[in-house]
Amino acid sequence: MSDPFVWRELRDEYQLVAQRCSSCGVVIYPMKHKICPKCGKIQEETKEIKLNPHGKIVTYTVQYVPGPGAKEFGPPMILVICDLDDGGRINGILTDCAPDSVKIGMRVKLELRSLYTSNGLDVYSHKFTPIKE
Ligand SMILES: [Zn+2]
């Protein structure tokens, strides 16, 4: 018996579990596709791979207007889209970085961090942090 869908999805997200297309080799993340988005081959056997959390910023924006929701998302908030070194494109929040220091091509790492607290419980997700080189 396989894990319930919600637990499998959490595992894939928190541990960066992706799949590699058995035909063209492209990395598919998140693992929600039964058909390869690049070559169209049906994925009958899923080959899971754990992605390296390192990558680089492809594009970003700095949000200065407060959005709805948790006060922890107050401005300025840096939103980035990153390509991971092993493949896969992920968006998220960049932290531990001043808005005027962000650069396209900047090396970053995904870390599991607390996003906010709801009803006394921490809600975790990934945040990007700069790699100090
Ligand atoms: Zn493919």
In short:
This protein has a 5-stranded mixed barrel. Strands 2-1-3 form a 3-stranded antiparallel beta sheet. It is 8% helix and 42% strand.
> In DSSP terms, counting alpha (H) and pi (I) runs of 4 or more, how many helices?
1
Proportion of residues in helical segments: under 10%
> If you consult CATH, what is the topology of the largest domain?
OB fold (Dihydrolipoamide Acetyltransferase, E2P)
Bound molecules: zinc ion
Main sheet: strands, sense, barrel: 5 strands, mixed, barrel
> Rounded to an integer, what's the Rg over CA atoms?
16 Å
**What portion of the residues fall into strands of 2 or more residues?**
35-45%
Give the C-level CATH assignment of the largest domain.
Answer: Mainly Beta
Across the major sheet, the strand order is: 4-5-6-8-7
Q: Low-confidence parts lasting 5 or more residues at pLDDT below 50?
A: none
End-to-end Cα distance, whole Å, is 45 Å
| Total count of domains | 2
Q: Please tell me the CATH architecture of the largest domain by its name.
A: Beta Barrel
Q: SSE order, as H and E?
A: HEEEEEEEE
Average pLDDT: 85
> Tally of extended strands?
8
Structural class: mainly beta
Dominant shape:
globular
Describe the SSE topology.
Blueprint: H1 5-14, E1 17-20, E2 27-28, E3 47-50, E4 54-63, E5 77-84, E6 89-94, E7 107-118, E8 121-130
Parallel strand pairs: 6-8
Antiparallel strand pairs: 1-2, 1-3, 4-5, 4-7, 5-6, 7-8
